[in-house]
Amino acid sequence: MRRNVFSIAATAILSLVQEYSPEQPTPINMTEPEIMEFLEEIADGFRIWPEAPLYHRPDELNLKYETVTFPSEDGVPLEGRFFPCNGSDKIIIMNHPRLFNRAGLPSHTEPWNTLTAPLGNNFDVNFIPDYKILHDAGYNVLTHDFRNYGMSGRGNNVLYSGGRYESYDVIGALRYIRKRKDTKDMTIGLFPQYMGGSATFFAMGTHPGEFKDIRTIVFPQPISANMSSKVTLQTAGIDLDYLKELDDMVYWRTSLHLEVRNDLATHWSDVQDVFDAIPAEDKELLWINGTTRRWDGYLHFQRHPDAILKWLERWMN
Description:
The chain has a single domain (about 5-315), classed as Alpha/Beta hydrolase fold, catalytic domain (Rossmann fold, 3-Layer(aba) Sandwich), CATH 3.40.50.1820. By secondary structure, it is of the alpha/beta class. Strands 2-3-7-4-8 form a five-stranded mixed sheet, with helices on both faces. It has a three-stranded parallel sheet with strand order 9-1-10, sandwiched between helices. The protein has a two-stranded antiparallel ribbon with strand order 5-6. The chain starts with 11 loop residues before the first strand and ends with a helix. About 35% of the residues lie in helices and about 15% in strands. InterPro entries: AB_hydrolase_fold (IPR029058).
């Protein structure tokens, strides 16, 4: 993640990550054609992924909600849910990681079970409890599906862009809240996760004025743009010099140059570098220990909400 996207120095940021230290991979001898085929498969992942259903509903926890639709900055129709909290003048905009949608990800079912099993992430991730915790703590909540996920529209040739195109959706959500009669004067906080965080920081770099009144950001599972690609290549025993070839493949397919992201593995030092690059005066890094499963980071808030709620209370009031 490039340093120049962190342009809101006064924003308070809480980063929530899991501690992960991958073992050194065993080198695998691959021929040049085999390496190119492997890189092609990674590049394909920017366009092709299994689409998850909205597996969980607010009714499961008796949460009242409104189904809402609004346009992204570039016009892609987005669908989401607004959870009203009577008497509250505060709202949290919460969005989802890659592969997920506003309901979570049923990683315990196929094909996600097979895809996520190698790193132990083959279990259900349900985001509905997160919304209930925030609601019960006195916050209105807006959540939405990013473009190309859930019930939102398709855009940019169904390309995952590491937060570039997705940043238009972040701007769309902010403008929607500021135009609604019942939310336009509310204090806003952001709770983006992984891809949502990447999109948010990219939007901060291109539209800093949209974030001038944002009180705080809680950011589970940050990762820089090409760290997970390095892990993928290292695990396959492929020299990191091939990152350039991978970039070229993605560029050729999309007419957009981007650093490849992967949501399965990272390294703590990369997370630390991302955190250190944020020029906020008030920031905190919470490490989740005792697990190597990335999905545990997405469930940490509903399992241990106190620290994050305390942070939100500090900055949203």
